[in-house]
Amino acid sequence: MIDENGVPAERVLDEIRQLRAQDRPVHGGRLFAYVYDPGVAGLDALAGAAHATSAHVNGLDPTAFPSLLAMENWLVGATGGLLGGGPGSAAPDVVGSVTSGGTESLILAVKAARDAHPELTAPRIVVPASGHAAFAKAAHLLRVTLDTVGVDPATLRPSVADVAAAIRPETVLVACSAPSYAHGVIDPVAGIAEVAAAAGVRCHVDACFGGWTLPYLRRLGVPVPPFDFTVDGVTSISVDLHKYAYAPKGVSVLLHRDATLRAPQFFAYADWPGYTMVNPVLASTRSGGPIAAAYATLRHLGDDGYLRLAAATRDAVGCLAAAVRGVDGLRLMAEPESTVVCFTSTDPALDLFVLVDELTARGWHTQPQLRYADLPASVHLTVTASVAPRVAEFGPDLAAAVAAARRAGPVELPAELLALAGSLTPAALTPELIGGLAAGLGLGAGPPDRMAMVNTLLDAAPAALRERLLVEFVGLLQRPTW
């Protein structure tokens, strides 16, 4: 409960520091998901100071706070220029908006496409199965039908022909990824954009993950295919600055080829006695802190800085991939094309979920990915520049973790639990059953130290049941502190 007389400032900060000590390390090059660390000395302090100058500035009204408008416009210009837009380019009239993250950018891309066709009562979007789950969230929130196109289990990409076949008269948007998050491969953007344009449909490129780094990798000689506004038919692109632009959370940019395409993204409302609300994004009040921090980060690192960071990341990716190739029983899901290393097990005696726990015990925090359709479970590594100084340590630790995982053997779920996973429906999950499952899996006051049992159960469950289990498990963790 809130203290009657307040708490001294230093004590409050001590409490926060103690709580933070329980978290995964956000610096040091050993966390392969969630955060993006360039390993640049002094950058945190700069971003923090910039955030503090604008934390209380409100993005609701750009006429009241023109400093924020200027910084947003600069961020959009820098991002658009990197991705084939701006004066003298293939997209000279590119415009954009700064959002809170990739999910908001994708929701707004879907909203703009949907609202551009008010005559359609049942709009649809076409998205590869490898497209980010935020597209499904957008479809759910905006009541748009999601048409999913499967990916080839060998290439991990959708075929252009399958995308074309999925387009209907009600389709308002076709999406593709550069690259996909799960496996780090780049979809055939040029072909997808061509079939979308032929059908008169918008094409959005989700480059939230790679949009900032792919242009630099191309300059370094990596064979990056066309994916941006240089591709005819690409109408919008999303790029997260809090990923490989290394800005603090949460700042993304949604670009449109021109202002006409962006117009339906806005929300305006005047039919009430207060101020007329005009929002380019989902939020009304927005702190200027993240935008100022992103502005400071981009201005400080500069083009040469990002090129150096991309080179360090490229080298780290190569070393990590070589380490995986050197272990019997592991194979890369795809040869790295960007900043992702993703691998799976080819040995039934080598349980990937146990391996993930063994890597965690050695200080490497990776991201397990469950089975989907014809695709096996895998381990995902998002590689950042901060990994480069530590990359030589990974190979020996991976070999040791694999040996330990083999000694431990695969996780074996109790027969009754395995039967439940195969037979339960989401509607059959009662609070009592959820409580029993959570207790059996060690989900008490917090996540267990080892997650292999939990991941094995989720991997055995159909997607709908998996979703409900995770909702309930997270709900158990998020309870008030009295």
Automatic annotation (TrEMBL):
<dbReference type="Pfam" id="PF00282">
    <property type="entry name" value="Pyridoxal_deC"/>
</dbReference>
<dbReference type="InterPro" id="IPR015421">
    <property type="entry name" value="PyrdxlP-dep_Trfase_major"/>
</dbReference>
<dbReference type="InterPro" id="IPR050477">
    <property type="entry name" value="GrpII_AminoAcid_Decarb"/>
</dbReference>
<dbReference type="InterPro" id="IPR015424">
    <property type="entry name" value="PyrdxlP-dep_Trfase"/>
</dbReference>
<feature type="modified residue" description="N6-(pyridoxal phosphate)lysine">
    <location>
        <position position="243"/>
    </location>
</feature>
<protein>
    <submittedName>
        <fullName>Glutamate or tyrosine decarboxylase</fullName>
    </submittedName>
</protein>
<comment type="similarity">
    <text>Belongs to the group II decarboxylase family. Sphingosine-1-phosphate lyase subfamily.</text>
</comment>
<dbReference type="GO" id="GO:0030170">
    <property type="term" value="F:pyridoxal phosphate binding"/>
</dbReference>
<keyword id="KW-0456">Lyase</keyword>
<dbReference type="GO" id="GO:0004058">
    <property type="term" value="F:aromatic-L-amino-acid decarboxylase activity"/>
</dbReference>
<dbReference type="GO" id="GO:0019752">
    <property type="term" value="P:carboxylic acid metabolic process"/>
</dbReference>
<dbReference type="InterPro" id="IPR015422">
    <property type="entry name" value="PyrdxlP-dep_Trfase_small"/>
</dbReference>
<dbReference type="InterPro" id="IPR002129">
    <property type="entry name" value="PyrdxlP-dep_de-COase"/>
</dbReference>
<keyword id="KW-0663">Pyridoxal phosphate</keyword>
